[in-house]
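Need a sequence for this fold. Nothing fancy.
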């Protein structure tokens, strides 16, 4: 988990790239459960992930790589991400209310989940 300079997707992407990483996206409940203990210790702000809403109307969630490059559509996001995507809530964050993923505005003040 690292800080980002501004509340933008590209700033989050840049923050991970600076440490030789990419934005992380927990792909299953086991990974989320493994992260919980660590996140509880370091949590200061919502944590933006590497998921982004690809299409709010169809509920497609994209896995995005460096430089905002599309990688793939995420599978089984209904069980991983609480709520529904929208045109205004285009990013996915882990919050401390339940340490689960939720949709939110990409402009939300947050730190970044990075992954190797």
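Here you go.
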């Amino acid at each position: 988990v690292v800080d980002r300079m501004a509340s933008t997707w590209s700033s989050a992407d840049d923050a991970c790239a600076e440490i030789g990483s990419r934005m992380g996206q927990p792909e299953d409940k086991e990974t989320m459960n493994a992260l919980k203990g660590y996140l509880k210790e370091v949590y200061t702000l919502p944590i933006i992930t590497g998921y982004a809403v690809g299409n709010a109307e169809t509920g497609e969630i994209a896995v995005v790589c460096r430089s905002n490059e599309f990688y793939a559509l995420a599978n089984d996001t209904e069980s991983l991400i609480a709520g529904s995507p929208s045109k205004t809530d285009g990013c996915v964050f882990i919050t401390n209310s339940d340490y689960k993923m939720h949709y939110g505005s990409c402009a939300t003040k947050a730190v970044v989940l990075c992954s190797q």
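For context: Residues 9-115 form a domain with the Mannose-Binding Protein A; Chain A fold (CATH 3.10.100.10).
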